[in-house]
UniProtKB/TrEMBL annotation:
PROSITE patterns: ALPHA_GALACTOSIDASE. Pfam families: Melibiase_2 (PF16499), Melibiase_C (PF17801). InterPro entries: Aldolase_TIM (IPR013785), GH (IPR017853), Glyco_hydro_27 (IPR002241), Glyco_hydro_27/36_CS (IPR000111), Glyco_hydro_b (IPR013780), Melibiase_C (IPR041233). Belongs to the glycosyl hydrolase 27 family. It comes from Cellvibrio fibrivorans. This is Alpha-galactosidase. One of its GO terms (molecular function) is alpha-galactosidase activity.
Length: 405
């Protein structure tokens, strides 16, 4: 082979590599703060249809959720029909007789966005058609319907490589040309936090949630988890979260059977951990208590803070834990969690405490730097110049916002 020929082959190879890289992107402007929305699975499982989805979009508006920032209406598993002769996915015509484009148009007409669910394997977790081998076709189809969000699951994936499987769908979405938030759902099995920053906008960190405070719900070959087990599984993950790439603690169970105190704690914890906040209840008939929790502006502001730093566990006293989330403008959110079955009173003499966050590079000597605080649920106010004595209900939280004096 002549040198000239070798050189041109080299150029071609480099062009191919670079060309490949040019497509290896996710849509960068999405999920700069954790995504806010609703998903069908926790309440409806496979019982999804277009009327219910329309009503949910209506309820997101009428409940005031849209006004405080909720945006996505996500249809989880079971919207799928068969693939056509060319391999293009169809909707389940019985439950979605008007088609997905019409439904997306409706959701958009409410000023909201719409999401769909698929799976990296040949079949979804509920046995519908998965995207394996059809990734580019599916992404183009979703784009043509006007879809804004893709949740991508990990059932029936056999021995395929997770990083390549998710990167393939990411590339397919990018190629389809419509910005679609890419929500990775492989339950944390392959540590997506280590490889998915450039692949998805969020990744599930655990198996499925279950509406209980501190339980493991055994399904035989797999388990789903209550609020505390999911929280505990976040240990060590906060350094991987940031604008555009979040640790997803799963769709919420607020309004799905826990006590009001537990629901408030669940919501506050997901918020301070900078998890996507995706409601999983029936928005059409929420109790006032549920609505108040889901639309609580001060909690949402902590979750949506532009700094995009996940909370750290600052103090661990077994059943009593304190989490701190650095916020913009030198402010902090401080969450007191009582995991136990009885209410407790905790005393904190700020002046004797020091807080250091290696990730966001914040450090506070509370004897030197003073803050005013406000309890974001009760509106009680105070200052870190004085010792704090705080009552925290059983299975509950108190959340203070600290503002520099
Ligand atoms: C998996 C996911 C759930 C849900 C179901 C649908 O279990 O983790 O969130 O999407 O599949 O079948």
């Amino acid at each position: 082979m002549t040198n000239k020929l070798l050189l041109s082959l080299g150029f071609i190879a480099a062009a191919l590599v670079l060309g490949g890289q040019a497509h290896a992107q996710k849509f960068d402007q999405l999920a700069k703060t954790p995504q806010l929305g609703w998903n069908s699975w926790n309440t409806f499982a496979c019982n999804v249809n277009e009327n219910m989805i329309r009503e949910m979009a209506d309820a997101m508006v009428s409940s005031g959720m849209k006004e405080v920032g909720y945006e996505y209406i996500n249809i989880d598993d079971c919207w799928h029909g068969e693939r056509d002769k060319q391999g293009f996915i169809q909707v389940d015509k019985k439950n979605f007789p008007s088609g997905m484009k019409a439904l997306a148009d409706y959701v958009h007409s409410k000023g909201l966005k719409i999401g769909l669910y698929s799976d990296a394997g040949a079949t979804t977790c509920a046995g519908r058609a998965g995207s394996r081998g059809h990734e580019y076709q599916d992404a183009v189809t979703y784009a043509s319907w006007g879809i804004d969000y893709v949740k991508y699951d990990w059932c029936d994936t056999k021995d395929i490589n997770p990083k390549s499987a998710y990167a393939t769908m990411r590339d397919a979405i990018y190629k389809a040309g419509r910005p679609m938030l890419f929500s990775i759902c492989e339950w944390g099995d392959n540590k997506p936090w280590e490889w998915a920053t450039d692949v998805g906008h969020s990744w599930r960190t655990t198996g499925d949630i279950y509406p209980c405070w501190n339980c493991e719900h055994n399904h035989g070959s797999w388990s789903s988890w209550g609020v505390l087990p999911i929280l505990d599984k976040q240990a060590g993950l906060r350094k991987y979260a940031g604008p555009g790439h979040w640790n997803d603690m799963d769709m919420m169970e607020v309004g799905n059977g826990m006590t009001e105190e537990e629901d408030r704690a669940h919501f506050s914890l997901w918020a301070i951990m900078a998890s996507p906040l995706i409601a999983g209840n029936d928005l059409r008939n929420m109790s006032e208590a549920t609505k108040k929790i889901l639309t609580h502006k001060d909690t949402l502001a902590i979750n949506q803070d532009k700094l995009g730093v996940q909370a750290m566990k600052w103090i661990d006293e077994g059943d009593f834990e304190i989490f701190v989330k650095p916020l913009e403008k030198g402010e902090f959110a401080v969450l007191f969690l009582n995991r136990a079955d009885a209410a407790t009173t905790y005393s904190l003499d700020w002046a004797f405490h020091y807080m250091k966050d290696d990730i966001s590079k914040h450090e506070i000597f509370f004897d030197k730097k003073k803050f005013n605080w406000r309890d974001i649920w009760s509106d009680e106010k105070g200052s870190t110049a004085e010792k704090l004595t705080i009552n925290v209900p059983a299975h509950g939280v108190r959340v203070l916002r600290l503002i520099p004096q």
